[in-house]
Each structure stands twice: as C-alpha cells, then as structure tokens.
Specification:
Elements (H helix, E strand, L loop, with lengths): L12 H5 L7 H11 L12 E5 L3 H12 L3 E5 L15 E4 L7 H20 L12 E2 L3 E5 L4 H12 L4 E4 L1 H7 L10 E5 L3 E4 L1 H13 L3 E3 L3 E7 L2 E7 L4 E3 L2 E4 L5 H4 L1 H4 L4 E10 L15 E4 L5 E4 L7 E5 L17 H14 L8 E11 L6 E5 L2 E8 L9 H13 L16
Parallel strand pairs: 1-2, 1-13, 2-9, 5-15, 13-20
Antiparallel strand pairs: 3-8, 4-8, 5-7, 6-7, 10-11, 11-12, 14-17, 14-18, 15-16, 16-17, 19-20
Helix pairs in contact: 2-4, 3-7, 3-11, 4-11
This protein binds flavin-adenine dinucleotide (FAD).
Flavin-adenine dinucleotide (FAD) binds next to helix 3, strand 3, strand 10, strand 14 and strand 18.
C-alpha cells in the first residue's frame, strides 16, 4: 500500500463482523454435503467485484461470482498458473484423506464433483483439445503402525462413501511390485482419487470465465484508496485505477507482502523442490495405468505422481523449506535436495536407482500456522476479502472453495471460524 492514499480506518471488530446471516461451523460441513448434486445458481445482485489473482483460488472464485450474477473483473500480474504462482506446474494430488479434518474430506468430495462436471462442460475449450483435469489413479498411502492421521481418516472416508481399501505389506507388494514396502506396516488405497492437471486447469478456468462473460486483465493491482471502512479502488500496473464494490485478493504467496499488517506473519511462503525422474525405455510400471499417486507418511513425508504427459516420475519432499520470495526467488533446485530425492527414489523404487533427472521445479507453499485456509474480510475494510493460505493442499479445493467464497462474499455471510483471521488471535 502506498502513501498517497488514505490508510485503512479501524473499524470496530463488531461492526465489520455484522451484516448478513452466518454460515456457522456446524453448518459448513452440511453446506458442502448439500452441494453435492447441485448445479448453477443465480441471484439478482449485480455488484462489481474485482478478483485479484487468477490461480486455483481466485480463478474459481471469479467464475462462481459471475454465476451468482456479479459483474466480475479478474486481474493477474503474470497469468493463471504462471511459473511463479503456487498453482503453476503440471500436477496436483487430489485426495479426501484428511485425518480428523472431516471438513476437508467433504470439500474434496464437492470439489471432485465440480472438477469432473467442468471437465465435461468445457469439452473443447483449450485450443481445441479436450481438457482433462482429473486422472483417477488412486492414491496409495504408505503408513507406519501408529499413523494417527491415516487411522483417523478411515471412518471419515467410509462415511463420505469413498472407495478405500487397506492393505498389509504383502498384499501391497503383490499389487505394486515396483514399490519396495520395507518399513511400511500398512497401506491405505483411496481409489476415487488421483491427480489434477494444474496450469492447464487454471487456463481452462479463465477460458470458462471469459466465455461466461467475465472481464480479465493481465495487470498487477494494489489497494489504492480506503474510505469509510472500505476499499474503493485499485491502482493497476498500467497506471489506471479500477473501482469496484467488492474486492477479493486471492494472491497466494504474495498476500503477506500486499497486506503486511494483517497477513505478514500469518502466511509464510516456503521454497519447495520437485523432481521428475526418467523411467526405463518402454517400461510402463511407473506410468499412471500401473502406479497410483503415492504418499509415504514417514519422516520426511515424501510423495509422488506417476509421469503425466511423459514427464517421468514426479517426486517431492513435503517438509516446509526455507522462506521464499515468489517474485524474485531463483527457481533452481539444490544439490542436497536432488541427492536426497535420488536416495529416496532408489530405496522405494529400486528399478529407478540411478535414474536420470529429467526436469525439476521450485515452487512455494503459502503456509498458515495451522495449515487451514484464510477466507475473511480485511479487518479494516468490510468490502475487501482475503482468500489464500493454501498451505500445500489448496489446489484440489479450488472449485469448492470458489463456490463457497462467492456465496459468502455476495450474500454477506460470516465465513466458517476455521477460515477466519480471528482464529489466530482468540
Ligand atoms: C510444489 C507444490 C505442490 C503442491 N501440491 C499440492 C497437491 O498435491 N494438492 C493440492 O491440493 N495442493 C497442492 N499444493 C498447493 C496448491 O497448489 C496451492 O495451495 C494453490 O495452488 C494456491 O492457489 P492460489 O490461487 O491461492 O495462489 P496462486 O496460484 O499463487 O495464485 C495467485 C495469483 O495471484 C497473482 N498475483 C499476485 N500478486 C498480484 C497482484 N498484485 N496483482 C495481480 N495479480 C497478482 C499471481 O500471478 C498468481 O497467479 C501444492 C503447492 C506447491 C507449490
């Protein structure tokens, strides 16, 4: 925020929280469950909403705001799924396995339904090609004996009607002989899960948004003027200003820099490395027909995705890396990271011992202290919404979160406490 504009005024917390019905904690779960099977909605309101950020969170939110009858301008400094964004790259895991966090299981179920609906709805949107978002490979979790996260997940998965199977190491090894199950005491296979295409999906969401009448501008934006407890306009990187009734900042890892006072310590961008290793010629054991997405719940937590688009086996360490600047950070992987990835690969996938590195990426998580998302009003501007904190698991939820955010923003509802900023202070 710069100097020549008014600073946000302090609104009493009670004042900005009031207004509209609340979507309380207990009802949020019911909200996602009731959504299953529903389609498009509309409302008579026609406010102008500016959504800043066309990643997994902002793109879907813009689309659902449009469908609820708003006039929507979507802005992105570098484009949907760009190589700096957290939604960039090739693939993301989609799984409903969430330990005790039943709400995310319900969100995943709704999101998966929406991913599949849109895959069918946008048959030729992407340069004449059929966009395929969801690849149903299944997700195999490899667990140690006392893995509470997986044990807690099982009843929720069953309750949500997810097709799951538990395997002992011998069963798992028979089913997946390309994996060495040494040290693994049981495995959980979530069958109706897998991976999503990342950048491709973000581009398709933008195309869908444009086709339904949305306005997109490839510009950077910053809050320009606060008046009367509201943000009234944005300053854009072409020197123009944009006025709107409501603003949704969905700028992923950039949010703490844009709102340092509110989010500076609540969203931490961390550097994450991803590796793609080459498989032997003509060997289909590591392609998605034969290998599920997998997670190895050890220390560190490793995970991977079979090679989509012939990119080789994707492998990553989920441990939060050092702080990272999403704009200026260099995206070259470290020698230590590569060495550790190779060591793990050779142990868990013996046929890939010594496999060549084909590609590598550096991305960033934008983690909150509790790994839950943020969807809340800015404390000093009642028409300014903050949406982010994907914390390494947000991509899959894009459509369900966008649908929820659109309802909350337009119907002036109070978001679920789990996503409110107040959880960090209370
Ligand atoms: C390596 C890695 C692996 C992951 N794995 C998974 C996974 O397996 N499953 C899963 O569900 N999730 C996963 N995630 C998390 C998930 O990808 C993110 O939580 C999600 O993509 C965040 O989306 P976003 O829209 O909030 O942020 P972003 O995608 O970063 O979007 C923000 C957008 O805002 C734009 N922007 C920023 N500042 C401005 C500005 N001032 N003006 C205009 N535009 C601006 C940027 O250009 C960007 O496009 C992973 C993330 C990473 C990095």
């Amino acid at each position: 925020m710069d100097d020549d504009k008014a600073q946000p005024e302090q609104l009493p917390r009670r004042q900005f929280l009031k207004g509209g019905a609340s979507l309380g904690a207990a009802s949020l779960l019911a909200w996602f469950e009731s959504r299953a099977g529903q389609g498009k909605e509309s409302s008579g309101m026609k406010p102008h909403v500016a959504v800043i950020g066309a990643g997994a969170f902002g793109g879907w939110t813009a689309l659902y705001l449009l469908r609820r009858g708003a006039r929507v301008t979507l802005l992105d400094a570098w484009g949907p799924g760009n190589s700096r964004s957290s939604s960039g790259g090739e693939t993301r895991v989609i799984r409903a396995t969430y330990g005790r966090e039943k709400i995310y299981t319900a969100m995943t179920v709704r999101a998966l339904q929406l991913w599949q609906e849109h895959e069918a709805r946008w048959p030729r949107s992407l340069r004449g090609r059929q966009p395929r978002f969801f690849h149903r490979t299944g997700v195999l979790w490899m667990a140690r004996k006392d893995d509470a996260f997986l044990k807690d997940s099982v009843p929720h998965l069953r309750e949500a009607g997810r097709d799951t199977e538990t395997l002992d190491p011998a069963q798992a090894a028979r089913r997946y002989p390309q994996i060495n199950f040494e040290g693994i005491e049981w495995a959980l296979l979530e069958k109706d899960a897998g991976y999503l295409t990342a950048r491709l999906a973000c581009e398709a969401v933008l195309e869908g948004f444009l086709a339904e009448g949305g306005d997109y501008r490839a510009l950077s934006a910053e809050p320009a003027q606060f008046t009367g407890g509201k943000l009234s306009r944005l300053r854009l990187s072409d020197g123009s200003v944009l006025e709107a009734d409501l603003f949704v900042f969905a700028c992923g890892p950039w949010l703490p820099k844009i709102f340092p006072d509110v989010l500076g310590t609540l969203i931490r961008p961390t550097r994450q490395e991803i590796f793609f290793f080459g498989t032997p010629a003509g060997d289909a054991r590591f392609s998605e027909e034969n290998l599920p997405v997998w997670g190895d719940a050890g220390d560190p937590f490793m995970y991977g995705i079979p090679g989509n688009a012939h990119r080789g086996l994707k492998l990553a360490d989920d441990t939060r890396g050092p702080d990272f600047d999403p704009t200026s950070g260099e995206r070259t992987v470290s020698a230590e990271g590569l060495e550790a990835a190779r060591r793990y690969l050779g142990f868990r996938f013996p046929a890939l011992k010594g496999a060549p590195l084909l590609e590598a990426r550096v991305c960033q998580y934008e983690g909150t202290p509790d790994s839950h998302f943020i969807l809340d009003r800015h404390p000093q501007a009642q028409n300014l919404w903050l949406l982010g904190g994907g914390s390494g698991h947000g991509f899959k939820h894009g459509p369900a979160l966008g649908e929820l955010a659109a309802e909350i923003v337009l119907e002036k509802k109070t978001p679920e406490p789990l996503f409110q900023l107040g959880r960090f202070t209370s």
